[in-house]
Specification:
This protein has helices at about 20-30, 30-55, 55-75, 85-105, 125-130, 135-145, 145-155, 160-170, 175-195. The protein is mostly helical.
């Protein structure tokens, strides 16, 4: 994909700079080449998350460009309390969730079953999810609700901490743990329904 927003390249920027160092330099100098480096590092990953949640390539490309505009406009708000990747993935998930909510006209999307309802859910060992065959994993992730898929991707693909996920959803750590537990249980249930081995 051609990057029309940030065509400038500066070969003098060391590729080994951390994301946080790049952000600091961008904020100090306003040199677009620093942002271009972040774009190159994350555009593929953000596009993959967008297409995973939104399903359509064109919609995912539009979302990715909008997300990068949000990142650019809000760069000064990055506090460094979490990793830069966590911060931009939070923006990505929130943006995609908003699109899905608008499509379904369902404001409760991803708010379901948080903190208030602590019913008993069987605990599913992480190894069950981590050992699932990739092709089967893709099938199951397409079958479970978007809210469950999102929280599992945050935890297991993006390696976000419970605290970081709680920050995205503005929920307590105990509520996030319960949501993850329920999502894992739903994953296992759908897996067992489809693959009876």
């Amino acid at each position: 994909m051609i990057n029309l927003l940030f065509p400038l390249l500066t070969k003098d920027i060391p590729k080994t700079m951390s994301d946080e160092e790049i952000v600091a330099e961008y904020l100090k100098t306003q040199n677009v080449a620093y942002f271009d480096l972040l774009y190159k590092r994350y555009s593929g990953k953000i596009f993959a998350k967008c297409i995973s949640l939104l399903k359509f390539e064109g919609e995912a490309e539009d979302a990715m460009q909008e997300i990068f505009m949000k990142i650019l406009l809000n760069m000064s708000k990055f506090s460094g309390k979490s990793r830069f990747s966590t911060w931009i993935y939070s923006i990505t998930y929130n943006y995609c969730i908003d699109i899905i909510r608008r499509k379904k006209k369902d404001p409760s999307l991803l708010v379901d079953n948080f903190a208030t309802n602590h019913d008993t859910v069987d605990d599913v060992d992480d190894s069950f999810l981590l050992e699932v065959n990739i092709s089967r994993l893709k099938v199951i992730l397409e079958e479970i609700p978007v809210s469950d898929k999102t929280i599992l991707l945050m935890k297991y693909q993006d390696d976000m901490s419970i605290k970081e996920i709680g920050g995205v959803f503005e929920k307590s750590e105990s509520a996030i743990k319960m949501k993850i537990k329920r999502a894992k249980s739903k994953f296992r249930s759908v897996y067992q329904d489809i693959y009876k081995d």
